[in-house]
């Protein structure tokens, strides 16, 4: 940054609250951003300025303007500024189920290293890393999801050595989870709902959606928790309403997923003066 562009006083996160199927953020961090954590989505992003450094699969990576960040679902990573100038970036969190609607039951594409210079991915992710004040029309988002799924598959290449997957059974299990989040879901219940033997189902679920059935349940409850605290619920009330045993139980899972505790997550949104809004996973 030059002398006429002062550094932001504190870290901030701007979150798109437009109804849609893909969550999008823009953020600036002057130093440490996030502790090691895991999402169950693809994290597709672009560094706008500075150096975005992160540990990923036991190596330190450096995202620069012009790269496309592609973090695979459920891969451990953190985030920090690579220089004293800080970094600014945009990120879209893409539900693997949206990619599967295009691929129709193939193993999720894997981009090695978490970074890509491939122009196909850069172009296919362009829609999702536009400025937050650019609303995505429903058809625009759907077209972009198709392009992104095709680019991920093309750049990753065809996986080898996989057994046949039962995509429809895994889809039935996913639908059952979404409809029964406030119950104590078991593999036996998922086996009955899907018609697939439980261990085969558990394996297929991981390959198709990037995470285990248990992690999927937990993160959907965290989605509900985030929506509730953005609507003004207290942390303890939101935790109980979303199906956690207590606030401490929720906080452990929240920090593992987002790299910061919920109070810090809210503080970063407020730092940028963003009004509360709801987000719902579809």
TrEMBL record:
Keywords: DNA-binding, Transcription, Transcription regulation. The keyword Repressor does not apply. SUPFAM superfamilies: Homeodomain-like, Regulatory protein AraC. Signal peptide: none annotated. This is AraC-type DNA-binding protein. InterPro entries: AraC-bd (IPR003313), AraC_XylS_family_regulators (IPR050204), Homeodomain-like_sf (IPR009057), HTH-like (IPR037923), HTH_AraC (IPR018060). GO terms for molecular function: DNA-binding transcription factor activity; sequence-specific DNA binding. Regulatory protein of the TOL plasmid xyl operons. XylS activates the xylXYZLTEGFJQKIH operon required for the degradation of toluene, m-xylene and p-xylene. The keyword Transcription regulation applies.
């Amino acid at each position: 940054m030059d002398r006429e562009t002062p550094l932001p006083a504190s870290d901030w996160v701007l979150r798109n609250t437009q109804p849609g199927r893909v969550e999008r953020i823009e953020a600036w961090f002057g130093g440490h951003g996030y502790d090691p954590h895991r999402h169950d989505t693809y994290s597709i992003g672009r560094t706008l300025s500075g150096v975005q450094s992160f540990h990923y699969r036991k190596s330190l990576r450096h995202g620069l303007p012009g790269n496309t960040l592609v973090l695979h679902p459920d891969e451990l990573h953190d985030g920090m500024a690579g220089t004293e100038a800080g970094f600014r970036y945009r990120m879209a969190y893409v539900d693997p189920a949206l990619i599967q609607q295009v691929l129709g039951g193939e193993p999720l594409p894997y981009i090695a290293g978490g970074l890509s210079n491939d122009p196909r991915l850069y172009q296919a992710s362009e829609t999702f890393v536009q400025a937050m004040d650019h609303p995505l029309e429903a058809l625009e988002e759907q077209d972009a999801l198709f392009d992104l799924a095709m680019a991920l598959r093309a750049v990753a290449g065809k996986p080898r050595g996989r057994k046949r997957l039962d995509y429809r059974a895994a889809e039935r299990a996913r639908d059952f989870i979404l409809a029964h989040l406030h119950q104590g879901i078991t593999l036996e219940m998922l086996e009955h709902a899907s018609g697939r033997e439980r261990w085969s189902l558990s394996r297929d679920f991981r390959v198709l959606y990037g995470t285990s059935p248990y992690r999927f349940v937990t993160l959907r409850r965290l989605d509900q928790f985030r929506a509730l605290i953005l609507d003004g619920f207290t942390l303890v009330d939101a935790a109980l309403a979303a199906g956690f045993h207590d606030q401490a139980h929720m906080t452990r899972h929240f920090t593992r997923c987002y790299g910061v505790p919920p109070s810090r997550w809210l503080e970063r949104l407020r730092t940028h003066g963003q009004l509360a809004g709801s987000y719902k996973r579809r």
